[in-house]
Each structure stands twice: as C-alpha cells, then as structure tokens.
C-alpha cells in the first residue's frame, strides 16, 4: 500500500511524505502506482522549477518528502492541488492508497 502523510500547521501544508508500493498489479502494470507517480512527478517538477528556494525535496527509492521551508500562497495552491489529486486516487483505490492528514 502507498501511504501519504500530510502535515498541516495553521491550515497550511508543511510536509508531505509518500512511501510504499500500491501492489495493485505486477511491476510495470500497476495503474495505481503509475497514477500516483505521474501526479507526484509533475508536482515535484513544478515545485523544483517554480519554488525551489521554498521547499526541500527528497526523492529516495521508496520515499518522497516535500518539506516547506518558506511559506508562499502560490506554493500552498500547488500543494493543495497535489493533495486534491492524491485524494482522488485514494477515493478510487482505498485498498492500495491511504492518506493521513495530521493537523
């Protein structure tokens, strides 16, 4: 199962951590994993290009961490958009993807 943990402070996203594997199909044929990967890869590219000085991005074999260093309203919009997309996957595939929101 893929797990996403989203940490908020004062109603703003501070940290997003994504770990695990969806295990919804064989390697290379897992549509849940492919969907999450596409969403997160696009967000990481946008964050790196548009907000690189405001976030710390960590990409490891089985872990992605997005940590906010400096708040910005446009940055928050991008992070909220990422969360909405992940929630859409979660609604469709709750057995393969879970989201924990820490307030």
Automatic annotation (TrEMBL):
UniProt cross-references to InterPro entries, sorted A to Z: Peptidase_Prp (IPR007422), Peptidase_Prp_sf (IPR036764)
UniProt keyword terms in alphabetical order: Hydrolase, Protease, Ribosome biogenesis, Thiol protease
Gene Ontology terms for molecular function: cysteine-type peptidase activity
GO BP terms, alphabetized: proteolysis; ribosome biogenesis
Record carries keyword Protease: yes
Similarity section: Belongs to the Prp family.
Name under which the protein is recorded: Ribosomal processing cysteine protease Prp
